[in-house]
Amino acid sequence: MDIDYKALAKKYGTPLYMYDFDYIEHRYNDLKEAFAGKKSLINYAVKANSNLSVIAHLAKLGAGADCVSIGEVRRALDAGVKKYNIIFSGVGKRDDEIREALEKDILMLNLESEAEMKRVEMIAKELGKEARISIRVNPNIDPQTHPYISTGLHENKFGVEIDMAKRMYIYANKSEYLNPVGIHFHIGSQLTKLDPIRESAQIVADLVRSLKAIKIDIKFFDVGGGIGVVYSDEITIPVRDYAEAIFDATKGLDVTLLCEPGRYMVANAGAFFTSVLYEKVNAGKRFVIVDGGMNDLIRPSLYDAYHKIDAVMVEGEKSFADVVGPVCESGDFFGKNVLLPPLQHNDLLVVHSAGAYGFTMASNYNTRPKPAEVALEAGKDRLIRRRESYEDQIRLEKEFLHRDQ
Ligand SMILES: Cc1ncc(COP(=O)(O)O)c(C=O)c1O
Ligand SMILES: N[C@@H](CCCC[NH3+])C(=O)O
């Protein structure tokens, strides 16, 4: 799709997030087709991009939601995701979150410790309900990704080891208030190698078989998210191979296959627009200073993540520059040594593949308002979140000002 970046920047201002909804649909359909012929559900990982309109767009296509807080569960329900298509994961669910999830009667709570299981049992008992649960298994497989986003090794805080999972299933199966319907693993994000996923799926499927042998029947086999995307020149996992690996691992099991892609659905559908404020050269080093900052898009600062940056409709001889924001941190950059033409005040830069973990990780650091978000669909653009104002930011503090006087 041809995107008129300049016109969008002019209409909505910068910094700005833009998401191509047609591309999101295309990604959803590709993955759905890869699972064709099997009982399956794609639970979009809301944490990647939790704008209500993005979730609603995927819900209309038939997606469920993978949530990591009760706030995300509420967003999914508000956006129109069916309650039986919602899963709630996370190592640290509070009592009030567990209670609300049980009251809202979502598909299942994905448990990450024995202590949590006991808490869920107690709350289900108080409510006189049976809690549908899955257990997140930590298969101790190296996903071969950035260490900050690896989750399937014993050194990571996520899930429980196989033996513990089995003990938990046996306990849950006997409990009046727990119904173990699912099993889950998620070994990391931005995965570009299939073997760690294949191996994990096999380990977890073997556990399902051993549970079946003791009459514990698992209905939902959840392979988590993690499918990597192209930011620069990565070779990613073809979704058909991904699905095949899961079919192979679960051969002979009568289960519904669930997956929880976040980044795969939205990363490449999104772009971040930022305008040039100034250029400067410090002792021979060129800096392009823009109006967006690490508070808007933190991935380069946090993970040293690469995002392709283009200057829109600017000609001239290119030279290397660091693209930096106005935030008072040396780590406030979008790109280092980026080849760019000479730039003027108000020239537009586009930071590509910013649809996942962009806005959702934005903050108000330096009292900077969060950017606006825009959707593009069938050639039309529309605002899906307005730019924050100063008033929005101080709303929860203002009433307390000067109360000490
Ligand atoms: C349990 C779980 N499911 C799904 C995801 C989504 O991951 P990704 O965006 O890499 O697909 C995550 C995040 O890593 C997660 O922790
Ligand atoms: N936020 C990370 C990924 C973490 C995924 C959630 N467990 C990123 O931007 O790549």
TrEMBL record:
Reaction(s) this enzyme catalyzes, per UniProt: meso-2,6-diaminopimelate + H(+) = L-lysine + CO2
Cofactor(s), names only, from the UniProt record: pyridoxal 5'-phosphate
An individual GO BP term: lysine biosynthetic process via diaminopimelate
MF-aspect GO terms: diaminopimelate decarboxylase activity; pyridoxal phosphate binding
Record InterPro entries: Ala_racemase/Decarboxylase_C, DAP_deCOOHase_LysA, De-COase2_CS, De-COase2_N, De-COase2_pyr-phos_BS, Orn/DAP/Arg_de-COase, PLP-binding_barrel
Positions annotated as active site in the UniProt record: 328 (proton donor)
Modified residues (N6-(pyridoxal phosphate)lysine): 47
Family: Belongs to the Orn/Lys/Arg decarboxylase class-II family. LysA subfamily.
Biological role: Specifically catalyzes the decarboxylation of meso-diaminopimelate (meso-DAP) to L-lysine.
Assembly mode: Homodimer.
Protein name: Diaminopimelate decarboxylase
Species name: Sulfurovum lithotrophicum
